Amino acid sequence: MTLPPNLQSQLEDLELYPDRADRIEALIAIGEEFRNPNRTEFPREESCRVPGCESEAFVGWNAAGELAIAIDNPQGISAMAMAQILLQGVRGATVEQVRAIPDDIIYTIFGRELSMGKSMGLTGMVRMVKQEFAKTA
Amino acid sequence: MSVAAPTPVSSSIDARGYAHPTALVSTEWVAEHKDDANVRLVESNEDPLLYAMGHIPGAVEIDWTRDLNDPLVRDYLDKDGFEALVKRNGITPETTVVFYGDKNNWWATYAAWVFHLFGHENTKIMDGGRIKWLNEGRQLTKEVPSYPESEYVAPARDDHKYRAFRDEVLAHLKTAGKLVDVRSRQEFDGTRLHMEAYPNEGALRGGHIPGAKNVPWAKAVNPETGEFLPASDLKALYEEANGLNQGDDVVVYCRIGERSSHTWYVLKYLLGYDKVRNYDGSWTEWGNLVGVPVER
Lengths: 137, 296
Description:
- The complex is a heterodimer of chains A (137) and B (296).
- Chain A is mainly α and 137 residues long.
- Chain A contains six helices and two strands, in the order H-H-E-E-H-H-H-H.
- Chain A has a two-stranded antiparallel ribbon with strand order 1-2.
- In chain A, a hairpin with a 5-residue loop joins strand 1 (57-61) and strand 2.
- Chain B is an alpha/beta fold.
- Chain B folds into two domains: 34-135, Oxidized Rhodanese, domain 1; 166-286, 3-Layer(aba) Sandwich (Oxidized Rhodanese, domain 1).
- Residues 1-9 and 195-200 of chain B have low confidence and may be disordered.
- Chain A binds chain B through residues 21, 24-25, 27-28, 31, 51-52, 54, 75-78, 81, 110-111, 113-118, 120, and chain B through 46-50, 52-53, 63-66, 102-103, 130-131, 134, 195, 197-199, 201, 255-256, 258.
């Protein structure tokens, strides 16, 4: 099963940074591109809360019917980077392509040196995006 | 027994009544001393991107997975690894190492605890951690400092004083030694086998070590400021509500020993307990051991 083309492209871009420090800089740059939707654009319903994410992450759909991710923790830079990768990555993708995203893609992106808590928060975000797309099938 | 609501935290560490107030420093102290030659600031975070986003000028990063743990065996770095770590960060045996980080200094206290295993006890924690420094609008930099390699001959890691292994915990049980389980209430009760909202990570049994008192680690911190509670509130929490006494031999544990290092720091330095050990095998070991007693 193929990944969403935009996501695949982003992963290939990140492969250009095998050095840990360079990868971190690249991920920070991605995270800084993330724009947190305000509560009018994307209300934070409890049903949209990402389980296990301590960065107060919410995944759902905005009024325009577009995938929306909110990160209500200004220090949650890893969560913002993951959100930005997902938002860009699934754009134009089919449900099947989104379902093909492996839950452990976070390790491809961030490396294995993640704590249990961080791993579960980021994985939870990936799973919720997949679940939201699955609902549209 | 219920615990009274925390009293407002004084801005003065000296006024909080800690047993060893010099083990905790304020952001103001760090701002004044960050350039001292005998002081090294160390940022230790859970989020691997935070340090690179900006840190206190002069601070080096020590990462809990990459720098403190053996990559293969479930254990901490050895003497050679520790020496290499401190040398490349310009730390000598005389250096005062000031740790700070995200998550209410959870990972900072963990790093400090590992330093203690090598006898480097000249450590301090920056009260309130990274978020307090940020909220005060203090300077951050992305510049990674470089220090000349230092001379440091470390002793062999001493696991006796501050670390407990499972056989020692079993022996501790037989003598009715005090245990503090710093996990969430649900983990302690056995209704969850993992941190709240986190999936099962492999413990086959839920519950706690018999006799352990449940004091979730973050209760030692003012949730609004990130600062440690005054000694009076800490005593109400650990002693009045949970029966600990300063002379007790205490073993603390959580899931893998990281949260409990925070409580280890609180008991040892803020309340002055002389005999506190961190059982880093914690529930991921105990909850899988065959035949050990479990209580719910």
